[in-house]
Amino acid sequence: MSSFLIQMIGWLGMLAFLISYQMKNNKSLFLCQVVGVSLFCLQFCLLGAFSGCLSLAITILRGALLYKYNDWKFVRWKGLPWILCGMFALVLIVTWAGPISLLAFVASVVSTLCYWTNNAGMIRLSNLLCASPCWIVYDVLVGSWGGVASESLTILSILISIFRFGWKSLIDKDSSFQK
């Protein structure tokens, strides 16, 4: 596959992520992110970046589960994110390519633990301060220019959503964001 097409996959993934942070509820955010993650998973595979690819494959499962957070009782079980974190650790071991592999692992674990709070503010904050910066460095190192742009714009989009909706409404457990 041509380098141009591989990069285009990342740019489409970026578009899905930009849209996700402007959603007014977590369920829609998770659905948009499953689409974006799927595209980046494919791109990382094509780039030979297997730590990121397999971490994102688990993230697709995570997103699908979180989409059903309010519908399926077992998804709210506090042990489930730890099982996913164990899967991320297994990916880290199996695909170890040096310290670069830690970036995908840390981003995946931190975001998984924060997503399971089902708190819109915590989800955005974990991505703003940890997951997106880790993915930016990973993307630079593997040559995913759509990934670099996506994570950079994700940070901007998160900041816009905080400004647009207000921090208080993002952390209020009774707001529509938590549904």
Ends distance: 40 Å
Largest sheet: none
Strand segment tally:
0
Q: List the domain count as a whole number.
A: 1
Secondary-structure class: mainly alpha
Provide the residue-averaged pLDDT.
90
Q: What is the alpha-carbon Rg in Å?
A: 15 Å
Instruction: Flag low-confidence runs.
Output: none
Quick overview:
With 179 residues, the chain is mainly alpha-helical. It has 8 helices and no strands.
Give structural notes.
The protein is mainly alpha-helical and 179 residues long. It has one domain (3-173). 77% of the residues lie in helices and 0% in strands. The chain is built from eight helices and no strands. The chain has helices at residues 3-20, 26-47, 50-67, 80-94, 100-115, 120-142, 145-165, 167-171. Helix 1 (3-20) runs antiparallel to helix 2, helix 1 packs parallel to helix 7 (145-165) and helix 2 runs antiparallel to helix 3 (50-67).
